[in-house]
Task: structure prediction
Amino acid sequence: MISQPLRNNAGQLKVSVWRGDESGGRHVDYDVPGLESQTVLDVVTWIQRHSDPSLSYRFACRVGMCGSCAMTVNGVPRWTCRSHVRDVARSNLLTIEPLRNLPVIKDLACDMSAFFEKWDDAMGRFHPTATRGDDVEPIRPGSIGRREADAGIECINCAVCYSACDVVAYKQDYLGPAALNRAWTLVNDVRDAARGARLRAVASDAGCHSCHSHQSCTTWCPIELNPTASIAGLKRQSALAILTGKISLDDE
Result:
């Protein structure tokens, strides 16, 4: 029998929360009062304030701007501040866990260090071709490169796509969707001076060509970006650069 979505938040919610750290832990069950327009973040906050003040989790803005409240809710990575209980609970049941593919510091809080290190490995920083003393270069908003860059530039590094990625799950050094999406925006920025080096960085064994195009990153991106398309672009451009001799993976 398939359980039905919760239609009315009135009544008690049965909430199972992961408690522990990277060395191990267990799920702990809590009874939480159901409220109208209640979010999953509201539920976690209620537990910390009324049931167990030792519960650790991360949040900041509460309005879907920072992405720091991302957790795994009933098996799906989500921003908990924008996930309403009525939309994600099944038969008044919620299971809340930390994001996958990241070390757990404590309970629902993950260590994001590896995630951001991979951003750096993908050369996710802008390398300008101009100095402060130069005139600002005009960029045509309708140009192909600018449209490609704009399509992925709103990423806020919440790591939902990283948590959803099956390749990251079995290939720990894979750069991941967010880092590769960022690299694609810079490859298409005519003001950036590191295009060749960046294509070489993402063409490594841990880079874009390891992507299996399962599109989990695109499916669960909270702001509906398409990292799969960005990675496909990197595959095309890096392969072309190798074939035309513009980059070599044998370089030191």
